[in-house]
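User: Here's a structure from my thesis project, written as structure tokens. My advisor, Dr. K., wants to see whether a designed sequence matches the one we expressed. Can you design one independently, without my sequence as a hint?
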């Protein structure tokens, strides 16, 4: 008798739990826009003033075996901006998966960057990345990003 009651209750909460975790189309679009903005504004424009807008204070970037913080990124940008001619970076993404859990979303994607100088492509780069975005009072922000370079032919 107890098993007959517990099984339906368990199934109900299992299904409810799965449904509650589905990402809404609006949330998916917000996350896609967040990534586009981060890579266009921070990495493309080399604008360290935008880091606070897109990253949490405790943000970590795991970049090909290195651990970067917001301060590490600011230092990198300051050095990069000293270059005589900064390349233009065009970013595009191919999203693989989104997983929502309460106020966070984990997602995976391919990241493509084309670097050009004076309209001429100088490099094409690709990374396989995963990230965690946290819902804050200011909107979605990145808390963690894990990046692995993909060799291109």
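Assistant: Designed independently from the structure alone:
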């Amino acid at each position: 008798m107890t098993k007959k009651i517990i099984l339906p209750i368990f199934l109900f909460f299992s299904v409810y739990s799965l449904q509650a975790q589905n990402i809404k189309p609006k949330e998916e679009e917000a996350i896609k826009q967040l990534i586009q903005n981060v890579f266009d504004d921070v990495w493309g424009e080399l604008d360290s003033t935008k880091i606070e807008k897109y990253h949490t204070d405790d943000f970590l970037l795991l970049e090909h075996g290195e651990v970067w913080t917001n301060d590490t990124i600011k230092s990198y940008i300051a050095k990069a901006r000293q270059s005589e001619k900064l390349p233009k970076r065009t970013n595009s993404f191919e999203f693989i998966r989104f997983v929502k859990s309460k106020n966070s979303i984990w997602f995976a994607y391919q990241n493509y960057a084309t670097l050009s100088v004076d309209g001429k492509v100088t490099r094409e780069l690709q990374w396989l990345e995963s990230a965690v975005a946290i819902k804050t009072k200011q909107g979605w922000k990145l808390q963690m990003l894990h990046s692995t370079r993909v060799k291109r032919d």
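When you compare it with your expressed construct, this may help: The radius of gyration is 19 Å.
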